[in-house]
Amino acid sequence: MKNTIKKYIEKRNFEVTNEPWGSISKEKKRNIFVIQRHLSRIAHYDFRLEINGVLKSWAIPKEIPLKQGEKRLAIQVEDHPIEYAEFHGKIPKGNYGAGIVETWDKGYYKLKKQTPNQIEINLKGKKAKGNYALIRTQFNKNKNSWLLIKTKD
Ligand code: MN
Questions:
Q1: Are 60 and 148 in contact (CB under 8 A)?
Q2: Which of 52, 96, 111, 123 has the greatest count of CB atoms below 10 A from its CB?
Q3: Which residues surround ligand 1, an ion (CB under 5 A)?
Q4: ∠ CA(95), CA(41), CA(7), 5° rounding?
Q5: How far does CA 113 lie from the centroid of its chain?
Q6: How many other C-beta atoms can be found within 10 angstroms of the C-beta atom of residue 62?
């Protein structure tokens, strides 16, 4: 997975939005994860994992799976800077993602396996805990389409 925050920067007007400007982090990796509730035109959750100096990001239209075996569609979106894990607040009207961003859960994760089509992790959050897998779906041509699955602990 190539890391870039070019798209993130291009989509936003930093003179108007309070979202963080950012660059790819060179700091030692901390394995942060964050799940944000994003009340925009279509309310959804944003699931973000720190990987190689950026937050790899997926938009999840439904509730975060908490029980073993539950799975949710997760659409991969543009990489976000690490600083975004700290962001919450209002994105003003007329801007990309306009609406409210709230922190739903946050913590650290342990990477168990990573291939181009599969990421297995153990989340150490307050609400999202234990083993999860992100698997790129094969059934459609949209390469951004993944499933977030609560797997066996
Ligand atoms: Mn979002």
A1: yes
A2: 123
A3: 38, 46
A4: 45
A5: 17
A6: 13
Residue 142: pLDDT over 90: no
Which three-class secondary structure state does DSSP give residue 98? coil
What digits encode the pLDDT tens for the residues 9-54?
Answer: 999 999 999 999 988 888 778 999 999 999 999 999 999 999 999 9
Which DSSP string do the residues of 19-79 spell out, in sequence order?
A: SPP-----SPP--EEEEEEEESSS-EEEEEEEETTEEEEEEESSPPP-STT-EEEEEEEEE
Distance 135 CA to ligand 1 centre (A): 20
Distance 101 CA to ligand 1 centre (A): 8
Distance 97 CA to ligand 1 centre (A): 6
CA 37 to centroid of ligand 1, rounded, Å: 8
CB atoms within 10 A of CB 36: 24
Specify the pLDDT at position 80: 96
d(CA 63, CA 72): 8
* H or E element in which residue 8 lies: helix 6-10
